[in-house]
Amino acid sequence: MTPAPGTAPAAATQDDVLAVRNLDVTVGGRTLVEDVGFTIRAGERVGLIGESGSGKSLTALSVMGLLPEGLRASGSVRLAGVDHDLVGADEARMSRVRGKEIAMVFQEPMTALNPTMRVGRQIAEVLLIHRTRPDRASARAAAVELLAQVGLPDPGAAAQAYPHQFSGGQRQRVVLAIALANDPALLVCDEPTTALDVTVQARVLDLIVRGVQDRRSAMLFITHDLAVVATACERVMVMYGGRLVESGPVREVFTRPRHRYTQGLIGASDLTVVDDRGRLATIRGSVPPAGRFPAGCVFRNRCDHATEVCATRPEWIPTGPDSGYACFHPVPGSAAPGATTPTNQEAGRG
Ligand SMILES: Nc1ncnc2c1ncn2[C@@H]1O[C@H](COP(=O)(O)OP(=O)(O)OP(=O)(O)O)[C@@H](O)[C@H]1O
Predict the structure, then answer these.
(1) Domain end (from 237, 260, 283)
(2) For ligand 1, mutation pick of 58, 61, 71, 238 (most atoms within 8 Å of CB)
(3) Of 172, 277, 314, 328, which has fewest CB within 10 angstroms of its CB?
(4) How far does residue 190's CA lie from ligand 1's centre (Å)?
(5) Digit-coded pLDDT (tens) for 43-101
(6) What spacing in Å lies between the alpha carbon of 30 and ligand 1's midpoint?
(7) How far apart are CA 122 and CA 285, in angstroms?
């Protein structure tokens, strides 16, 4: 096939942790995912975006060998250090890979947790099954340590609790602790923060990114939220109609999208960035060219009160000749000490 514009051929190198080639997913006579190919390097964080039904989840599920009954994958999915293809691998082989070399975090944490088992034990089991810890006592101690790493207060007590005793955000932290337990080479996340309260989304996203960075794990991150991709990922791939249509560094794809679908997606989005003083800016329309942001800006999650508060404010600054405007105001709870907040004060928001 001729590669779609902006998609790199899936040529595996020694640094690649994952190499997907010619992946098709079919059901009956219907092709749902067609000729998808990509690689992910060790430690690389890659976003996968695209409209609903474009094939993102089926691509991720194929990588993990978890396609729903009746769907069939063909092509090749190779993982570094695993001597067989994951496409067509039987369940016994896949269960040795899953939870060890590849781990996953889905949208709804309850689907990943056993409601009748204390969470400390659920984490310990993953360590024992894959023989990462030699005995139950050290697995339990490691479980408490993992719960501390994902920011649960009083991790010793948390280990003794059942899933229903946690909030949604806390449950997703537990799922993350399980996913990271064996230092996977690849973490696959499918909308991991979408079901969470908006106030905890950024914190959980932070923990995911920190968790993979600390372990030098690679990450494949599915989301609808471009700002999340901009925060969490270095590279982004775009799916449309079951095919991968574009791929590249996040800033390049977001500033110079090549495929018509990506151009529409970016053009219709509001993105937000945070500058080095902890202030948040909403970029309306599209992202301005690289270098137009103040130094130290990082992308953050969507700002949903900017339009009515800021649209008429003089603090709106043009961010590029054809790319809309930004309005700075503080990120709730995370403004850097000493950050000036004129927009916020004028708007009477704290
Ligand atoms: N079990 C199934 N049987 C038949 N068709 C399916 C099945 N699961 C998914 N599909 C179809 O495959 C296509 C791709 O689905 P997929 O879930 O990968 O999309 P997606 O990009 O992840 O969408 P969303 O963002 O809404 O989760 C869709 O047309 C969907 O209806």
Answers:
(1) 260
(2) 58
(3) 314
(4) 13
(5) 999 999 998 899 999 999 999 999 999 999 999 999 999 999 999 999 999 999 998 99
(6) 12
(7) 45
User: Residues 201, 56: one domain?
Assistant: yes
CA distance readout (Å), 79 to 72, 248, 255: 19, 21, 31
Which tokens in the block code for residue 290?
Answer: 């690289």
> Which has the minimum average pLDDT: 46-50, 157-161, 184-188, 289-293?
289-293
- ipTM of the predicted structure? 0.98
* Residue where a domain stops, chosen among 260, 295, 330: 260
Phi, psi angle pair for 104, to nearest 5°: -140, 155
Residues 6+ apart with CB under 8 A from 244: 4, 7, 36, 37, 38, 237, 238
Task: Determine the distance separating the centroid of ligand 1 and the alpha carbon of 220, expressed in angstroms.
Answer: 18
Nearest-atom number in ligand 1 for the CA of 224 is 25
Residue whose CA lies nearest to ligand 1 atom number 29: 53
